Amino acid sequence: MSHWPESDMIVLIDAHHLGLRVKELAAQIEADMVELNPVLVVVLKGGFLFGADLIKAFQRPFPVVFAAPRSQREDLLITPEDEALLHGRDVIMVDNLMDAGGSLLRLRDRLQRFHPASIRVAVLLHKTVSNAEPLRVNYLGFEVPDVRVVGYGLDEDQRYRGLESIYTWLPSHRLPKEHP
Ligand code: 5GP
Ligand code: MG
Q1: Ligand nearest, relative to CA of residue 149
Q2: 10 Å Cβ neighbour count for 157?
Q3: Which positions are catalytic?
Q4: Burial class, 155, CB count within 10 angstroms (exposed 0-12 / middle 13-18 / buried 19+)
Q5: Ligand 1 contact via 153 beta carbon (within 6 Å)
Q6: Which of 79, 134, 142, 143 gives 20 to 30 Å between its CA and that of 122?
């Protein structure tokens, strides 16, 4: 076990259950893609471990493209060589967390320019929000509460990305200590 998680952190979803769920999602995606021409678009940076585990679980080859949606320059979203991999293909956008959905919605709009045949969305974690989602999620791992989560690709100032489970912080760590 890694020494990285700190004492006030708790496991929200452990590595074992993450692994089982990712395998289920991979099977679902693969079944839906039988007649199609898929390409995984892995959203950097958060989606890289989820994307890697999906690829390992697939029984057939899937082309992979990495997208850097935080880039302000349109031409830096994906490499020019990868643009051709999107044309006419059935895209599965892979990210590890959706909150209000704005980030993935913007990315989907930018990907439309490369003329894919279709675009689906796979997210490992979804934070439950009260307002209607702007974007339909086709493949969802887990609903999580609206708390800060890290691990399995998700960072806090570049830390915790390598943790194999999803962690959060105990609510009590922000409260003043009880008087003895
Ligand atoms: P949305 O655009 O769906 O509202 O926000 C999604 C993005 O916000 C995620 O891709 C991630 O970058 C960031 N985010 C939201 N909640 C968390 C969290 O609890 N932990 C981390 N590490 N990032 C988060
Ligand atoms: Mg929220």
Answers
A1: 1
A2: 6
A3: 99
A4: middle
A5: no
A6: 79
